[in-house]
Amino acid sequence: MDSRDLAFTGAAAHARMLAAGDITAPDLLELYLDRIGRLDPTLRSYRVVLVDAARQEAGIAQDRLNAGERLPLLGVPIAIKDDVDVAGEVTTYGTAAHGPARATDAEVVRRLRDAGAVIIGKTTVPEMMLWSFTETVTFGATRNPWNTDYTPGGSSGGSGAAVAAGLVPMALGSDGMGSIRIPSTWCGVFGLKPQRDRVPLAPHDDAWNGLSVNGPIARTVEDAALFLDVTSDESGFVEAAGREPGRLRIALSTRVPAGVVTRVGRAQRAAVDEAATVLRGLGHEVVIRDPDYPQSAIPHALARYFRGVYDDVQTLPHPQRLEARSRSFARLGGLISEQQMRRIRAAESVVAERVNVIFDDVDVVLTPGTATGPSRIGAYQRRGAVPTLALVAGRVPFQAMFNVTGQPAAVVPWDRDNSGVPTSIQLVGRPFDEATLLSLSAQLERTRPWRDRRPPVS
């Protein structure tokens, strides 16, 4: 296998190759460090590459492999989104307002290390994880490897771009309003928003008032399942990804929740229509049916989002260094009192029950991954908080609802639009049912493989 093929192989396959002695951990790391050095000056997917620490970790991992030790990710490089703590490094949240280096790893990073992962670096984010584009005054713009005129998405934009361009086999993302699923869509990789509380957030528990979760951006479904096996308190996700899903009843919906003004683009609608044809060919029953989205659901999500950003800003030692748009956003969040937030949180179960009535009759809901393609780099540079939010919301209306309900949702790579940027389909599962999503996604992956698709910047 040549080095470029190896770069796109995926984390689970790398773990098997390392255990078999087909490659060494230091050689695998150096392959990625070389690619980062050549390609990331264009993409800017990494905020920092931990060269020395990663080399030391890879050497230790190889010693353990040589001694016969076997761990699920022993020697596999993993990138960490820059809203998650890595010991000895700052967590910038994409801003110059950040504090000092963290003394300890976040719990999810600790679990990845316990599984043998080599932490290669921290990936770029928009300031305070606010947007579906990854551009900041402090760290610049991250570009989409499929078309560098466009954003890779956000807020896990650096993680999505790095995995798509073969600069790491898998990356940690977080998803509070679609921030795993959006960049996974526009970068053409597999992304999974797990069930709320499936993957630990500590020490940042209940981020964005319960909207946010940690999860994987990966080259393959098996990679994402392996991530869940090593980071959650449950197991059996890899096993689920390897099972046939059986005959499922799937609801296809292109309805946009009330409160978002947009139209689903031709390429995005084609993706779900083609997916329905493929799924029927695989033996599934596909029906046209919309979830019952309450009128209050998007305002409910926005209130938790705004107040969550306000709460995050209160923890910063230098809030005066924030960009003006972020300060405005946080000020609006401060208008939502703690008492109001308690009432909003108490109403979540009513919203979730109404949305999830559809699962009395179907197993999975199928939607477009996004309504349109991504924005061009610099498109929102001179816009304020509310105008920016109104514009970006129209591109990504299918995500936030399932952060409110907390249930799992995955995006499966599909095709490309006229700009050469990938499209996807979103699969939404019952609460706590990642297993069905993984099984169905893996079946689609076998039918329409995407692992070896490589963007121009790769």
Automatic annotation (TrEMBL):
<dbReference type="InterPro" id="IPR036928">
    <property type="entry name" value="AS_sf"/>
</dbReference>
<keyword id="KW-0378">Hydrolase</keyword>
<dbReference type="GO" id="GO:0004040">
    <property type="term" value="F:amidase activity"/>
</dbReference>
<feature type="domain" description="Amidase">
    <location>
        <begin position="27"/>
        <end position="438"/>
    </location>
</feature>
<dbReference type="InterPro" id="IPR000120">
    <property type="entry name" value="Amidase"/>
</dbReference>
<protein>
    <recommendedName>
        <fullName>amidase</fullName>
        <ecNumber>3.5.1.4</ecNumber>
    </recommendedName>
</protein>
<comment type="similarity">
    <text>Belongs to the amidase family.</text>
</comment>
<dbReference type="InterPro" id="IPR023631">
    <property type="entry name" value="Amidase_dom"/>
</dbReference>
<dbReference type="Pfam" id="PF01425">
    <property type="entry name" value="Amidase"/>
</dbReference>
